[in-house]
Amino acid sequence: MTRLVNNLALVAFFAAADQIVKLLVVRTMALGEAIEILPFLALLHARNEGIAFSMLDGFHDTGLAVISGLVLAFVVWLWWNTAPERKLTHVGFALIAGGAIGNLIDRVNLGYVVDYILFHTPVWSFAVFNLADSFITIGAALILIDEFLVARRPKGAGRGETGRDETGAPDKV
Question: Which residues contact 30 (CB under 8 A, 6 or more apart)?
Fold first, then answer.
């Protein structure tokens, strides 16, 4: 039960952080207004009527909300079926769920998602995104790191044992 409460608290924290920043952007910046932070970074109040970096732009907002809800349900199912000792993966799923909920709140209430982070150069710019998108991306990266780097380490590798012989081949069991 404690694990569930802790996970739900993380999700709520990430979704709330996303919503607070979006509220600040909407209340303090006009749509389309840009504030240069660094030569390559700006705050730009934008509306994303698509999904994931404006893909499916123009698709009906109810359809996108349903797709988002189904993806979120699948992520929760994966999370629920992940071993408790996979802590990094659990944090990754919390980030993904919190970000997805943050964007879903926008989509259901507004019909679009508020975006505001723009990386750019004088000749190139990346898609405008938000904190929720960052949470989703970082969460996915943490899951991949856990899956391919942390979880695959031989037992005892963190204590000076490599699980490999002097040639670098895996130890025989």
Answer: 45
Q: Is 133 a catalytic residue?
A: yes
- Say how far apart CA 75 and CA 136 lie, in whole Å: 11
Whether the model clears a pTM of 0.90, i.e. scores above it, the answer is: no
Query: Which residue of the set 115, 146, 165, 171 is catalytic?
Result: 115
- Residues shown for the chain: 173
> CA-CA distance, 136 to 150, in Å (whole number)?
20
Containing 91, the helix (H) or strand (E) segment is helix 87-110
The pLDDT tens digits of the residues spanning 5-56 come to: 888 899 999 999 999 999 999 999 999 999 999 999 999 999 988 765 455 5
Interatomic CA distance for residues 43 and 145, integer angstroms: 29
